[in-house]
Design goal:
Elements lengths: L2 E5 L4 H12 L3 E6 L3 H11 L2 E4 L5 H9 L6 E4 L14 H29 L2 E6 L2 H5 L5 H21 L4 E8 L12 H10 L8 H13 L7 E4 L6
Parallel strand pairs: 1-2, 1-4, 2-3, 4-5, 5-6, 6-7
Helix pairs in contact: 1-8, 3-4, 4-6
């Protein structure tokens, strides 16, 4: 049994990951920011422990990890997305997106690090996006943060490898979560048709990729695309 900590675990990919790791028999803790009802439902369904915490707040993150006795796997999944032209993106929107998507990795990884170093072992999984690999019009801030996630993952893999800590990244494609709720059905269908597999992905498919990376003991510093072949 491993102790798995998942950020952004109340919905979408994070909730699917909580459910899958809990079903495997792992001890699961998940962080969430505001959706108390959704977090309660996930916790009741899975037996996982929900902790309310803004990952961009270093003090809150340290307090959250103080409630977690051990960490074997850290999945940095929490993320937000702002849609709109660069010229219409406010400074507050830009700063908040970087605070959650990039600083949130910094705060959570540093909070877990003492436990990893004590054991000389650990697995970190970050969640980027195919837009972090290719960039996306009208998602400049999001693409920039997800590109940063990839760079951080590769740098951390080199820095932490000698301490027995692996760090890998998942770059999902178009996944059927509430991040897509404002995208028109025609656009979603067009994106599905662009992928060689001819469909969009599910949160559960991304969660299974996370499980693979926890078990792949000789894999580190890699970006695993889960995108149906949309980006090759």
């Amino acid at each position: 049994m491993s102790t798995v900590v998942i950020t952004g675990g109340s919905r979408g990919i994070g909730a699917a990951a909580v459910e899958l790791f809990a079903a495997r028999g792992d001890r699961v803790y998940f962080l969430y920011e505001k959706n108390h009802d959704a977090a309660r439902r996930v916790a009741q369904k899975t037996g996982a422990t929900a902790i309310c915490c803004d990952v961009a707040d270093l003090t809150a993150v340290n307090a959250a990890f103080a409630q977690i006795p051990d960490v074997d796997v850290l999945i940095c999944n929490a993320g937000i997305c702002h849609y709109g032209l660069m010229s219409q993106t406010t400074e507050a929107d830009w700063d908040r997106e970087f605070a959650v998507n990039v600083k949130g990795m910094y705060t959570c990884i540093n909070a877990a690090m003492p436990k990893f170093l004590q054991k000389h072992a650990g697995c970190i999984i970050t969640v980027s996006s195919m837009w972090g690999q290719t960039g996306a019009s009208c998602e400049v801030a999001y693409s920039a943060t997800k590109g940063a996630v990839i760079a951080m993952t590769k740098a951390l893999a080199q820095e932490l490898g000698p301490s027995g800590i692996r760090c890998n990244c998942i770059a999902p494609g178009v996944i059927l979560t509430d991040m897509c709720k404002d995208v028109s059905p025609d656009t979603m269908q067009a994106l599905a048709q662009e992928a060689p597999l001819g469909k969009n992905g599910t949160p559960e498919q991304v969660a299974h990729a996370m499980v693979y990376l926890t078990e792949a003991e000789f894999v580190t510093g890699q970006v695993l695309p889960v995108n149906g072949g949309l980006v090759i």
